[in-house]
Design goal:
Elements: H1 3-25, E1 37-41, E2 46-47, E3 54-58, E4 66-70, E5 75-83, E6 92-93, E7 97-104, E8 107-111, E9 117-120, E10 125-128, E11 134-137, E12 144-151, E13 161-162, H2 165-175
Antiparallel strand pairs: 1-5, 2-5, 3-4, 5-12, 6-13, 7-10, 7-12, 8-9, 8-11
């Protein structure tokens, strides 16, 4: 059985009791709204068997070339995010570099440096250098599924580092985006 099939079966099994409960209660009972963004670890933090270093670069329209050197990329973690239509990530950075791959739906990836929404359709990927403040949103009508592989992940601690409230509020204003968080507008 493939990892995808196994993961799909686990997800399906987990949702059956709630679906059965709603069906048993009859018509007129609405299901709860799904969380705007959910994450599922596909791996724990894995360590390569020897030292690993990586250099990645990517050119995106309108931005200077992003080049990332990761002298110690020997730890990685893989996450799956499901982003509901209209949901937006808060402005953030990462403690490592993230390879973002869009499996389903659409995603607008937005770097703070230029506020441009770069649309990712299914089957595309982008390098998130990690150290640049950014956000992403689902502009579509269906959930977006993102597979994120973080290279150089710390052995413990957070994998997403939220922007300071003042910075997030200023970016919301400058970029014309309303991201979630506890910052004032």
């Amino acid at each position: 059985m493939s990892a995808h099939t196994s993961r799909h079966r686990r997800r399906s099994r987990a949702s059956l009791p709630f679906a059965s409960l709603v069906a048993a209660l009859g018509p007129g009972i609405a299901a709860a709204e799904p969380e705007p963004i959910t994450s599922v670890p596909l791996t724990e933090r894995h360590v390569f068997s020897g030292p690993v270093s990586v250099q990645l670069s990517q050119e995106l329209d309108g931005l200077k070339r992003h080049t990332v050197e990761i002298p110690d990329a020997s730890t990685l973690v893989v996450m799956e995010f499901t982003i509901q239509p209209g949901a937006v990530f808060p402005w953030h950075t990462h403690p490592g570099t993230v390879l973002v791959s869009l499996a389903e739906g659409e995603l607008d990836f937005i770097f703070a440096e230029d506020c441009t929404a770069r649309r990712l359709p299914p089957g595309t990927a982008i390098v998130d250098p990690g150290n640049q403040v950014h956000t992403a949103r689902n502009p579509g009508d269906a959930p977006a599924v993102v597979i994120a592989t973080l290279l150089g992940a710390p052995p413990e601690g957070g994998l997403t580092l939220p922007a300071e409230a003042d910075e997030a509020a200023a970016l919301d204003e400058r970029c014309g985006i309303d991201t979630p968080g506890h910052h004032a507008h």
